Every structure is written in C-alpha cells, then in structure tokens.
Inverse folding.
C-alpha cells in the first residue's frame, strides 16, 4: 500500500499547481532572489528559470524540478501574500501598507525589503499618518497623500543592502522632505530613515555617524566607498541651498564661495574639494590614520544626472531614484560624479595606486607601489600621443597642423560609400550595432603602465604596447589573409582598417600596437621607422571590463534579455526591452556611458580654467591621464570590427555601406539581421558577426528602405552621407551626437 501512496504522491507532485508567470517573478523578487539564486538551488540553468517567469510564453517545469519550484513558491507566497486590490476599502495587509508608504507598491506586486535590509515596520494607512521619529536603523512610513497608492513595484534588479554591518543601509540615500516637514532618507530596498539633521553640517555628521551608508572597497588595497546623499529640491530648500543654479553658477559649476551654507560648513571644520560646491560636491575632513570622513552629494536639479545618460532619473520620486542609483552602485560602483568620472574612478578603485608594504624591522608598514596599477604619479605621454596644445608641443609654430607622421590619430570609424547598382536593387538597409564595443576592445588588452621609451628602427612586437611610426600604404585589401588562407575581395567596397575615415594611408603614420598587428595578420610585412614603447605593461583594464560587463548583462537579464537566447529569441527579447522597466533601462544607458566616458577621460582636454595652448591643464596631474591607453582601446575596437567585416565579405560577398563607431549598415532583401547574417543550423560564421547580448556581439540597430537611403543622400547632395548615423529611426537632422 505504501508504494501505491508513494506513486500517488509522485503523481500529484508532477502536476504541482503553480501560480501565473507574473506571480512567480513577483515572489522571487519580493524575497530578493536573483534568477541565478533560484537556478542554483534547483540545479537548472538561469535561462530555464527566466523562461518559467516569461510573461509572453512561460514554460512549465517538470519532474522533481516542478515539485521543488512549487514548494519554493508556496513558502514565498506565505511570506509575501498577494496585495489587496485598490477597490478594497479595508486596511491593507501590513506588508502592503509599508510597500505603499515607501512608493514601491503596484496593483500587481508589493516589494518588501530583502532579508539583508532593515525589516519594514507595519503601519496603518491613514490620510496623513504621523509617525514618531525612530532611530536611523529602522524604517518609517510616509504620508500616503504624498505618493500615489498604486506605484510600480521594484522588479528584478533591486539591490539589497550591504552585508557589511558598517553599511547595512546600503551605499546611498535620497534625502527628501514630506508634506509634514519631516526629512526622510530613502535607501535601497525600500528602506526609509528619519533624518534629524537641521543643517547641512549636521546632515553630514548624521550620515557618517548614524546612517550606516557606504559600500565596501572593490579591491584589497582600495578604500571603502563614501556614502552618497542625493538631495531633492525640497531637501535643498530645507538646508538653505538654491533649488536650481543661475546661468553664471551653472557655467562656473558651483555656487559662490561666500554662500551661507559654505560658511556653515567652514565653521564646522568641513572642507570642499577644489571643484567647490557644485552638482557633485564632496564634503570631507582630512583623514585621521585609516579613518576617512567624507560624504558625496548629488544634486539632480543642478543637472548632476546628465539626461543624455540618465534619462529622466532626476525627475523620479525619491524611492524610485534610490532604487535606480542603488542598482548602479551595487553593480558598478557608487557614483562619484558624471558617468565619465565614475568610469575613470572605477579603474582606480580596482587598481589602487599604492598598497601597504610588508612589516619592516620595527613591525611598521609603509605605502608602496601597487603592482599592476598606474601608480600615484603622472607620466608624460610620447610627443606623438600628445593632443594639440599639450606642453610637449609648446615649441611648435603657432599655426602648425600636425599630420599623420607627427600625430597618433586612433579614432572610431566614420565611413560611408555610395551603393552599388546591385545593392540598389535590394529592398532594405539593415543596421547592426556591437554591444559594449569599447568595453570588448578593452578586454584582455595589454596596455602600458609606465612611461614610454623611444626606439629607432625597432622590430615590431605585437605584444608590446606603444605607438609605432610605420608605412602601411602597401596593404591591399583586395588580397588579404583570413585565418591562414589568402582571399580576394573587392577592396574598393571596404574601408581601410588604418584610418577612421576609411581612407588608404599615403605614407608613414603613427599607429597603436593593435593596428600594426592587424596589418601583419592580413599577411603584410611591417617595418617601423621608430616607436615609443612601454616595457612595463599589463592587462590593466581586465577587471574594469569584467565588472562593467557583469553589470550590463545582469541588468539586461532583469529586462528579459538573457545571454543564452537563440538569435530569433534574442531579437524578440530586444524588441521593446526598455519599456519593461524604464528605470532599469536607464541603468543600462548609464553603464554604457560609464564605458565610453571613462575611456574618454583618459585623454581629457582643458575645460575652461583660463587655459592657453602650451600650458598644462588640470587633468594632466592625474596618473590616469593616459592618451596611449585610450588610443589602444579604440584601435583594438576598430580592428575587431574590421576583422568581422572582412570575414563576412569573404564568406558572403556582402560589403558594408556605412559604419559609424560600432554601427554597421548592410543592404539586404529582408528587414532583419537574420536576412543577411550567415547562420547555419543556428550557428554563426566563426569570427564573424553573431547576434547576442554579450559585449562584442551584435544587436539590431534599425532598418530603413533602400529608397529612403537614396532619397536622403539626394536631398543633402551627399552620395557618401553616413546612413549609419540615422538608421535607427530614419530621422535625419544636422545634429551629430557621435553615437
């Protein structure tokens, strides 16, 4: 009989009831679980769990996995019951009341604090509840009249507070003032703290002594991340700061030194950095030993969150903004300024300049150079790597224009050509875009760590980072090596890999190592005339790439785009992914901007400062001012793209019509990338273009009619107008944003 019972139990388990896909996801997110957490527990792939939660076409688990999954969901449902509909007039469940009060509830879901944040305190719903002040380590409810009762829940991607007890309330808080005049700090995970501070100096004190905000260091010799406070306009008014900057203040990037709040800080012995009190202000006291006392401020209404990269983040409600910035902080790092500044700071956080030495004879440790870092002192670039106006070039004639033989010019592609007669008979122009192209270009790249050494008549070494003066005009794209085989191509339809405009070089020019190495790869001999090489080198950007890649992939997975989707499913998942969670879509945009901006900062130009050509500017004093590293990444990114283009042409006979940075346009008979990318049994051309979300793979950028392309070029009387610039939506303007 027992065997029969066991068989019946197994039969019931095989059909264990499961809630709808949306509810499965809600329960997982409510408990702070990631797709990887569930997949690991059930011993299935991440993509499998994602498919179980898919709103469009959910799959159903089978066998023992179904029983275990049903058990998990049942226990979570007991912890996080479904919310009461808004039409219900009674008091909501405690968990729902708290979620509504913090602005994270919706008709379909209630987000409660994850296990490793402070547990929300149940609160009754009233028209305007008055809650007594509580310690910083507890949450409080806010007036329901201040926030809509139906607020979008925080889905996958909501970070939990740090496990470090010093930072148990997370890396940051958005400080706001409610309608009752209470100052509140909205933290990650739905946590809300009472803020007792009556002035900005006391707010800084409270943040450092009571708020438990911040984040642990990213590397052994590094430093913990300082807490970040985001001040809303209401908070600015409370603490005596202007809600917006005047035009003069905006241009100066700061409020005047004589402002009353700055005087308050000075009296309290707080200091500001040289940049003063601007959109990203740093308030600190000199470090006492290993103890640091520093708070970072972010002021959205002063344009701290650039809309090009952060979209409408600055307009979000406090709880939503805390969630968005919290995801970015947990996956990238706590913002230290613009996305460009943060991208550069991330490099240093992962490779600090110094470390503690081994104990000396007296048992004391000293600061010493951290191997693999750029060190604490700046180094001069090579003359060919110096941008115009650099002090190394001060002896050049005033109006001298340096040519390719004097100046390293490694930049992204901006190339286009007229369509052939055959291409004009096709129906569509299809653009594909390389994901995180510059991040992929940094991955595994050997770059210089120290100063350059000048060498004459060197033997080229593809493993040695540097800048090489070499004539590559003899490289003929009509006959090149692809792998180990020589192939014949129509070189007139291909851009040169050696110049951003795709023009064939006419003589000796300066190139970064990846560019020269590619000439050798194509089957041609190279004989450099001279070089500036860096014998001290390493893969400095690997950790930076890995962290940004992981942040990008995790956030895209939360938006429903996984790394292991088939080409067809990938294209479908990318369609409208931003609308699934607009806040997480902003995080994706910010991550991308962190990559490009961080690399751009490696060759930052003068920013006002009364600078004159031939004089040093502020950025030159940084050890991270390294134009050679930027050039090497751009060189490798452009070469990676050209290699794929050549392999695609050799295999299919198809050639690009336009290239802009990481976007390539082809003519095709159909509107999809699958109409011209050579997939065989679901597998792409080895070494060619591959659809997918990983950095270096490609996505669909946009499709327009061939007639559109011809009409646009005729209208502007420009047969070589770069259509890649407009392929996304077909709108042609005179605005060039460089994307």
């Amino acid at each position: 009989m027992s065997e029969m019972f066991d068989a019946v139990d197994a039969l019931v388990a095989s059909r264990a009831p499961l809630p709808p896909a949306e509810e499965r996801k809600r329960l997982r997110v409510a408990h702070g679980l990631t797709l990887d957490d569930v997949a690991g527990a059930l011993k299935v792939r991440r993509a499998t769990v994602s498919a179980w939660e898919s709103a469009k076409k959910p799959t159903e688990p089978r066998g023992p996995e179904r029983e275990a999954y049903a058990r998990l969901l049942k226990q979570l449902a007991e912890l996080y019951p479904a919310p009461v509909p808004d039409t219900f007039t009674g008091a909501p469940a405690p968990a729902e009341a708290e979620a509504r009060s913090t602005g994270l509830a919706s008709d379909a879901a209630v987000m409660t604090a994850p296990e490793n944040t402070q547990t929300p305190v149940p609160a009754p719903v009233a028209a305007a509840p008055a809650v007594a002040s509580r310690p910083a380590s507890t949450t409080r409810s806010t007036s329901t009249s201040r926030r809509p009762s139906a607020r979008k829940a925080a889905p996958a991607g909501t970070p939990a507070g740090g496990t470090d007890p010093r930072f148990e309330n997370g890396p940051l808080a958005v400080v706001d003032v409610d309608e009752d005049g209470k100052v509140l700090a909205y933290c990650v995970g739905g946590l809300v703290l009472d803020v007792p501070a009556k002035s900005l100096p006391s707010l800084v004190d409270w943040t450092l002594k009571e708020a438990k905000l911040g984040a642990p260091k990213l590397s052994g010799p590094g430093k913990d991340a300082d807490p970040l406070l985001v001040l809303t306009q209401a908070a600015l008014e409370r603490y005596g700061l202007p809600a917006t900057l005047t035009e003069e203040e905006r241009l100066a990037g700061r409020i005047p030194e004589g402002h009353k709040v700055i005087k308050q800080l000075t009296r309290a012995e707080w200091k500001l950095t040289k940049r003063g009190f601007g959109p990203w202000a740093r308030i600190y006291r000199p470090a006492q030993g290993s103890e640091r006392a520093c708070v970072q401020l972010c002021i959205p209404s002063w344009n701290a969150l650039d809309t090009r990269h952060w979209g409408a983040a600055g307009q979000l409600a406090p709880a939503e903004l805390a969630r968005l910035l919290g995801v970015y902080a947990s996956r990238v790092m706590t913002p230290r300024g613009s996305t460009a500044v943060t991208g550069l700071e991330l490099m240093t956080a992962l490779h600090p300049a110094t470390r503690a030495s081994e104990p000396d004879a007296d048992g004391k440790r000293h600061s010493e150079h951290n191997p693999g870092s750029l060190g604490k002192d700046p180094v001069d670039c090579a003359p060919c790597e110096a941008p115009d106006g650099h002090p190394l070039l001060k002896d050049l004639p005033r109006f001298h224009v340096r040519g390719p033989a004097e100046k390293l010019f490694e930049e992204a592609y901006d190339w286009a050509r007229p369509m052939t007669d055959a291409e004009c008979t096709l129906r569509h122009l299809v653009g594909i875009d390389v994901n995180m192209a510059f991040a992929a270009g940094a991955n595994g790249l050997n770059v210089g760590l120290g100063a350059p050494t000048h060498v004459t008549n060197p033997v080229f070494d593809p493993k040695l980072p540097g800048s090489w003066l070499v004539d590559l005009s003899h490289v003929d794209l009509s006959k090149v090596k692809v792998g180990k085989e020589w192939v014949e191509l129509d070189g007139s339809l291909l851009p040169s890999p050696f110049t951003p405009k795709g023009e064939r070089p006419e003589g000796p020019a300066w190139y970064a190592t990846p560019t020269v190495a590619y000439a050798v790869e194509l089957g041609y001999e190279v004989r450099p005339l001279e070089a500036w090489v860096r014998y001290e080198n390493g893969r400095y950007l690997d950790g930076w790439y890995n962290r940004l890649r992981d942040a990008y992939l995790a956030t895209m997975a939360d938006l429903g785009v996984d790394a292991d989707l088939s080409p067809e499913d990938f294209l479908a998942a990318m369609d409208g992914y931003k609308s699934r969670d607009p806040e997480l879509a902003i995080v994706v945009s910010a991550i991308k901007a962190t990559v490009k901006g961080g690399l751009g900062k490696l060759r930052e130009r003068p920013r006002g400062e009364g600078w004159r050509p031939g004089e040093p500017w502020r950025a030159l004093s940084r050890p991270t001012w390294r134009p050679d590293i930027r050039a090497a990444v751009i060189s490798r990114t452009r070469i990676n793209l050209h290699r794929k283009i050549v392999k695609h042409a050799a295999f299919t006979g198809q050639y690009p019509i336009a290239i802009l940075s990481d976007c390539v346009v082809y003519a095709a008979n159909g509107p999809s990338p699958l109409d011209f990318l050579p997939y065989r049994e679901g597998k792409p051309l080895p070494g060619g273009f591959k659809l997918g979300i990983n950095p270096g793979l490609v996505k669909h950028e946009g499709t327009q009619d061939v007639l559109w392309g011809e009409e646009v070029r005729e209208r502007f009387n420009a047969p070589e107008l770069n259509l890649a610039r407009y392929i996304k939506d077909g709108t042609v303007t005179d605005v060039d944003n460089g994307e």
Summary: The chain has a mean pLDDT of 86. The first helix runs from residue 2 to 14. The first strand starts at residue 172 and ends at 177. DSSP finds 22 helices and 22 strands in the chain.
